[in-house]
Design brief:
The chain is mainly α. The chain is built from 21 helices and no strands. Pfam families: DUF6880 (PF21810).
């Protein structure tokens, strides 16, 4: 092997049992291999060697992930890094179009691991016109061998199911972008279906080729299609397009998004867009968030930085979100430490209402915090009495008693 291969491939390959913790560590190691390959490509190392090692790394990594628990995602991220590097390296290495086309086809249609995609648009500079033509011809051969799909009029998108058909449909979409063919982009991406995700994909592809007005039109169509999470995601993308290309329309766009999906996130976006106009909108926004206490408190706390108002609202509303209470206590503790003890006590008692070791540990941590806050104040005895009461009430829970002992809650 070359020196580059010696420096890279051992970071990819392993015979270890890649349980979750092991796969996380190995995934981080793989990312180092990606960095080394990228550095080699940038430093003028023999491009053909870089391409060869990159392809070997991809082959080893995609084989490896098939037997790994990549819950953390580190291995997948490293593989995506290798796949992003591959077409860039191919430009300098100048493999023959036939070899590159074969690699692309094999990766998508014959590789055991089908978790990842490659983008023919990214490979166009390395393939050239002749290579793109050969690539299209290979795709058509695969399509002809599969035969025509059986299309259910009620579920026409289901015709893409199956690895080969899915890969063909994906390539049709990306090649339409490569051709800058607006009609084909709309046909392959929107798929003639009232589906917000498909319409957003259409908008993204149109924006990719500079058709901004059409992209905004399709993003708006996606946003207007119901009130589900896909439409809300499309509304977010619409805001991105409007912010970049029609900034004078941003406030009205975010007003509409907030009106349809009032939340901490959409209120924060609206606050950002409003600028000097925020005082005229504030009351209406806070009123709309009032029936979503957690969203309201987070907005007051994180976006407006009004800790005291957030505290008052949390007590006057039905805020039941423990994580939000803890965040609020963190902020309010600097204003009135003793007042912060009340919510913490409620959290402890709610935790101990259900017998479970995890609840015991969490309650112990909160009680330890309460004792720290109360130290040197008139509330110190109150916290001690609370600990004594909880020990007595839970005297038949030995695991809880052990957790309290370990935390020094005596």
């Amino acid at each position: 092997m070359s020196e580059l291969a010696d420096n890279v491939l051992p970071l990819i390959r392993t015979r270890a049992d890649l349980h979750r913790r092991g796969s996380t560590a190995h995934g981080k190691q793989m990312s180092v291999a990606v960095d080394r390959l990228a550095a080699a490509a940038a430093s003028g190392t023999d491009p053909q060697d870089v391409l060869s090692v990159t392809q070997k790394a991809i082959a080893s990594a995609t084989t490896l992930i098939m037997r790994a628990d990549d819950s953390s995602g580190y291995m997948g991220d490293a593989i995506r890094g290798l796949l992003a590097l591959h077409p860039q390296v191919a430009v300098d290495a100048k493999p023959t179009p036939s070899k590159l086309v074969k690699w692309m086809i094999d990766f998508q249609f014959h590789n055991e691991c089908d978790f990842f995609t490659i983008d023919p648009v990214a490979y166009a500079p390395a393939l050239g016109k002749r290579g793109i033509a050969a690539y299209r011809a290979e795709l058509e051969e695969i399509r002809e061998a599969l035969g025509p799909p059986v299309i259910d009029p009620e579920r026409p998108w289901a015709a893409e199911f199956g690895r080969s058909r899915f890969a063909l449909a994906y390539n049709d979409r990306r090649l339409a972008v490569l051709d800058r063919d607006v009609d084909k982009i709309i046909d392959t991406h929107a798929r003639r279906q009232p589906n917000a995700a498909f319409l957003q994909d259409t908008a993204i592809a149109l924006a990719e080729i500079g058709e901004i007005d059409l992209a905004i039109e399709y993003a708006r169509k996606a946003s207007d299609l119901g009130s589900g999470f896909q439409s809300q995601a499309a509304a977010g993308y619409l805001s991105e397009l409007i912010s970049e290309h029609r900034p004078t329309e941003l406030l009205s766009t975010r007003l509409d998004t907030f009106a349809r999906w009032p939340s901490f996130a959409t209120a924060t976006d609206l606050h950002e867009a409003a600028g000097d106009e925020w005082p005229d909108l504030a009351d209406d926004v806070l009123t709309k968030l009032a029936d979503r206490p957690a969203e309201l408190i987070l907005f007051l706390l994180r976006t407006l930085g009004n800790v005291e108002c957030a505290w008052q609202q949390a007590h006057s509303s039905e805020l039941g979100d423990e994580e939000v209470w803890l965040e609020l206590v963190n902020a309010y503790e600097t204003i009135d430490p003793v007042a912060a003890l009340g919510p913490l006590q409620r959290i402890v008692e709610e935790r101990l209402a259900t017998a479970h070791p995890r609840n015991y540990r969490q309650a112990s941590r909160v009680l330890t915090r309460m004792r720290r806050i109360a130290a040197g104040t008139t509330a110190a005895n109150t916290v001690s009495e609370l600990i004594d009461r909880l020990r007595t009430e839970n005297r038949h829970r030995p695991r809880l008693q052990a957790e309290f002992d370990q935390a020094g809650l005596e």
